[in-house]
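REQUEST FORM: STRUCTURE PREDICTION
Request ID: SP-0412
Submitted by: Lab K.M.
Chain count: 1
Length (residues): 228
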Amino acid sequence: MAKQDKETYDSYEKDVYDNPPAGPMGVHRGARSAASRAMPYVIVIIVALLAGLLFWSIYSGEINNLKMPWSSQESSTTSSAEKSKSGKSKSKSQSDSASGNKTDASNADSPTDSQQNDQNAGQNAGQNAEQTDNATAQQAVNTGTEVRVVNATNITGYAQSKADVLTQAGYTSVSASNPTGNVPSQTVVWYQNETDKATAENVAQTLGISNVQQSDGLVTPIVVVLLD
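STATUS: Completed
RESULT:
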């Protein structure tokens, strides 16, 4: 038997697998561009940078200073509210100030308690001064008052000599006499009424007598009793 010839590619009948389409098929893909190959690395780098920036902002507190697009509207709204509140506070302050000025003015117009007390004290002082003047007028020295000088000593003419002293001092109704009843233990000037007190004191001063007393039942308004 003769040896068969060696089978080759061309000895088989052509089919669909012997005429594949142009370009890669299946798991075989064409070569990618440099940009598409570098894109994953770029994305990783960007994400890492953003994560680092976020971590730094949180750690340093700078995240509070970051302004978002919507934060401008909130800021403007907050600023308007603050301005409105400030305007109300200013108006209230001006109102309070005006009220305080009005109160101060009313306080300035109305007298204080101390001023009223001073006024009352002044009125009382005036009344007291007027009463004192009236009392002084009532107790003024009256040189026309009847004065009787009694000589209770053994010295003859002693009462008359003292009466002359009073007459020289301006008294116009002075008489001298001797005692008719009980006499005091020391020299004294008696007066009957309170209105004669000032005159009795003046008589005692004129005669150098220090003892002045009020006494009832006197015949004359003022009686001077002279003793040794």
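NOTES: The first strand starts at residue 147 and ends at 151.
Reviewed by: T.R.
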